[in-house]
Amino acid sequence: MFFHIVLERNMQLHPRHFGRDLREKLVSKLMKDVEGTCSGRHGFVVAITGIENVGKGLIRDGTGFVTFPVKYQCVVFRPFKGEILEAVVTMVNKMGFFAEAGPVQIFVSNHLIPDDMEFQSGDMPNYTTSDGSVKIQKDSEVRLKIIGTRVDATEIFCIGTIKDDFLGVISDPATAS
Amino acid sequence: MSVEPFNRLVKLAARAFYDDITTKGDNQPKTGRSDNRGIAVVVLDALTRRQWVREEDLAKDLKLHSKQLRRTLRFFEEEKLVTRDHRKETAKGAKIYSAAVAATVDGLQNGREGDEKIKLHTHSYCCLDYAQIYDVVRYRLHRMKKKLKDELDNKNTVQEYICPNCGKRYTALDALRLISPDDEYFHCESCNGELVAESDKLAAQEMGDGDDNARRRRREKLKDMLQKMEEQLKPLMEQLNRVKDLPVPEFGSLQAWELRANAAGRAGNGDSTANDPSKSSQGLGYGGTPMPFLGETKVEVAFSGVEEKADIKSENANSPMKVLPPWMIKQGMNLTKEQRGEVKQELKMEGTSSPAELSDDKKTTGKDDVKNLQDEYVKAYYAALLQRQREQEEAEKGQQERSNTNISNGVNGTSSERQVGVKSKRDDDEGDDDVEWEEAPPAGNTGESYKVNDLNVQADASGDDDDDIDWEEG
């Protein structure tokens, strides 16, 4: 699920950036530092949408670096148990398949794939129904439900299932392209 | 506390779960003769009829080999059904236990009085732990049900993987770490073995999963299994429900139980000597066991004794007051006025008030008590002082050869002189009182601490008395 929240961070800025465009430098550094990171508490920081305020800078003794407390608005993405996500399959093997929904990695084990789909090994390993109408392979897009999450301090990993109504492949790369 | 419902629970659980437990190692061939399945049930049943029991005795009663029994019991200990206790004891010490057994209801008297070796043997005892059994059985049922249910609608289970080599378990949440670049299986982190999905084992052993038919059949089988379980374990669950609100029979630790059983037996029999080996073995020190039960320790505090004592004291203090050794008068004179007043008060309390006032409140008794202490302290102090003075004098005289005898004399003398000293002091005070009665402020409610200080000051003052005397007289 996505959230738009305000976070705060102490930014250290090198003295060479002090000048007319200090603020721009600060913001660009903040984006570079923060976007794409993951915290267990808030999830993945997807994008910074704005700066709330920049506090007074504090010059560090000895280094000349200045620390600015920066409050910024950002979009974060945090997966929850029971959430339905759309994801792209990245790898298929006998144990199941891995998919990505943005920054989140999801594993769907073969027990959580509908019983009528079977693993086909080969050049392009895939799960296929007996009549061959539905195929899950690399780069397929699937809709899945998250049934478990592991949230570490800097990492979130999920387990999903496609063994439920309205879950499964939404577009087949073979037919789409 | 009734044990019966719990015993029934144990019996049901034994038949449900431990029916086909064999304690033989896997490597031994299971011939018809060595097949000891069902032993577990027998042992558990036997334990329901006992409380704490020595394992040897149990083995004898069950006509089992003690090794075999021990193996079974160890299994039950691991299953948390049984608590065990091991201790080193002499043959006599072991008799305490026998006595305890004799005292319990079922009166299992065993003829184990023969050997009287003083050698220490390690004896093991075991007892059912009903409270834990209740929890264990409930937990077991819960796990069974959960496992089946999870498997049944396995769309919401987190798949578990197990390493067949090292037995390490992983969940699907670890999947990212487990994939290997070489093949399409998960590999164990520690031994790099190929992981096996865990839930496959339960229902799909015999049919190779693959065709959808098999999966459906497996599902049916699971459902069937769950149903059967519900049905077959129904009596057990009912018993669990019945037992739920009952107080759990608790035997306590082995020692506590022994004490209690012995005490109960003694109370029942009325004789404490005849059937009680604990008494005879007291001297022999059976290692590790506490002293046998010797009845409740009662402490009775009688306050009357203190009062009497105080009275006696005060009388003693009062009666020979008239005798005044001259050196004491000098010492006693050097008192400040407040001190005199307080001392006077003190004396008043002691002399006159104690018989009268003791009756009306407790506080006075307390004061008297303190006073007694103070008196004793003063006496001891003066005695010591006296002796010191004597010794010094004698040392100054320089009569070395007689010093020993003198000291001994001095020591002997203290007993008499101590009395004299104290009394004379008091007397002295009295004398002061007489003189300065009017001046003395009625410091009636001075606390004990005052008096203590007072005494100390007085004692100190006795050292540098000369100046004061001069001052007073001048």
Explain this structure to me?
The complex is a heterodimer of chains A (177) and B (474). With 177 residues, chain A is mainly beta. Helices cover 10% and strands 53% of the residues of chain A. Chain A has 2 helices and 14 strands; from the N terminus they run βαβββββββββββββα. In chain A, the strands form 3 sheets. In chain A, strands 1, 2, 3, 4 and 5 form a 5-stranded antiparallel beta sheet that branches. Chain B has 3 domains: 162 residues, no CATH class; 104 residues, 2-Layer Sandwich (Herpes Virus-1), CATH 3.30.40.10; 170 residues, no CATH class. Chain B has 19 helices and 6 strands. In chain B, strands 1-3-2 form a 3-stranded antiparallel beta sheet, sandwiched between helices. In chain B, strands 5-4-6 form a 3-stranded antiparallel beta sheet, with no helix packed on it. In chain B, helix 15 packs across helix 17. Classes of the chains: A mainly beta (177), B mainly alpha (474). At the A-B interface, strand 8, strand 12 and strand 13 of A face helix 9 of B.
Per-chain topology:
The complex is a heterodimer of chains A (about 180) and B (about 475).
Chain A: E1 2-13, H1 22-34, E2 38-39, E3 43-54, E4 58-59, E5 66-77, E6 84-93, E7 96-101, E8 104-109, E9 117-120, E10 126-129, E11 135-136, E12 141-151, E13 156-161, E14 168-171, H2 173-176
Chain B: H1 4-17, H2 39-48, E1 53-54, H3 55-62, H4 66-78, E2 82-89, H5 91-103, E3 121-128, H6 130-152, E4 160-162, E5 169-171, H7 175-178, E6 196-197, H8 200-203, H9 212-232, H10 234-243, H11 254-269, H12 277-280, H13 304-318, H14 326-333, H15 337-357, H16 362-397, H17 400-436, H18 448-461, H19 465-473
Antiparallel strand pairs in B: 1-3, 2-3, 4-5, 4-6
Pfam families (chain A): S1, SHS2_Rpb7-N
Main location (chain A): nucleus
Function (chain A): DNA-dependent RNA polymerase which catalyzes the transcription of DNA into RNA using the four ribonucleoside triphosphates as substrates.
